[in-house]
Amino acid sequence: MRITEISERLPLKRSIGMEMVSSDPPVEYSARNDSITLSAITHADRPAVYVEFTSDFSSDATREVLEDSKFKKREFFDDLVAFSGSAGSAAA
């Protein structure tokens, strides 16, 4: 992965962008770009953050690749909740 963006431009938002440059073992699609964005939730009883994780694949990615990405993101959010000790819910 190659970092393509690190942004702190907006006061209540942080993001990082990544681009796949190579894979070992090789993947069956030609391109992938990911972004993780953290946004402060400003109207809440306690401090909270909304996490968005998106992936854009080249048109040669199969449905199986997209489904695999969806389930890996769910695991990522489950791990994030477990790591942070947050009782909040996570969605992909």
Characterization of the model:
It is a single chain. This protein has 92 residues and is an alpha+beta fold. It has one domain (2-84). The protein has 1 helix and 4 strands. The chain has a 4-stranded antiparallel sheet. Strand 1 (2-7) and strand 2 (13-19) form a beta hairpin. It starts with a strand and ends in an 8-residue tail after the last helix.
Short structural description:
The chain is built from 1 helix and 4 strands. The protein has one helix spanning 63-84; strands at residues 2-7, 13-19, 32-41, 48-57. It has a 4-stranded antiparallel sheet.
Strand order across the biggest sheet?
1-2-3-4
- Specify Rg, calculated over alpha carbons: 15 Å
Number of helices: 1
Report the portion of residues in β strands.
35-45%
Q: Got a strand count? A: 4
What is the H/E string?
Answer: EEEEH
How much helicity do the residues have?
10-25%
Distance between the termini: 21 Å
- Give average pLDDT, whole number: 91
Q: Looking at the structure, what is the overall shape?
A: globular
Q: Would you identify the regions where 5 or more consecutive residues have pLDDT less than 50?
A: none
